[in-house]
Each structure stands twice: as C-alpha cells, then as structure tokens.
Amino acid sequence: MLHKLVAAPINLVIRIGQKVQEEAEKELYDLPTIQQKLIQLQMMFELGEIPEKAYQEKEDELLMRYEMAKRREMEEWEKLTKRGNEG
User: Fold this and answer.
1) How far apart are the first and last CA of the chain?
2) Whole-model pTM?
3) Which DSSP string do the residues of 19-58 spell out, in sequence order?
C-alpha cells in the first residue's frame, strides 16, 4: 500500500509529461496547424507587419517542419500498411 502512495505522484508526473510531449509534437508536426501558420505568415508579410528577412526565416522554418511532418505521416502510413499486409 505504501508503494502505491509513493508511486501515484510519480505516475501523475509521468502522465502529465507525456501529455505535454503529445501537445508539443502536435504543434510541431500537425500539418493543418503548419499550413495555417504559413497562411498567417503570408498575410502578415503582405500587410507589411513583418520585414522580408523575418518572413523568409520563419517561412523556411515552417516549410522544414512541414516536410518533417509529411515524412512522419508517410512513415506512419507505411507502418499501418505493413501491419495490414501481415495480418
């Protein structure tokens, strides 16, 4: 029983950490989120709210994240199709 009382807070911290990691990955690798950020960035640039240099730097970052997200998506599809073919 004492073990459960000691382990409970640790398990809670672990679950919170996992949830934070999931949300961070969603922010980094969620294709619709990245696409929306690219649109917002383009609008800000066209409205003169950010200089071209800042626009280019942020666009490069977002496009790199987009490519990584697409690669991750393709890897997930490959895993799913391999599992489907094995069964």
Assistant:
1) 42
2) 0.67
3) HHHHHHHHHHH-HHHHHHHHHHHHHHHHTTSS-HHHHHHH
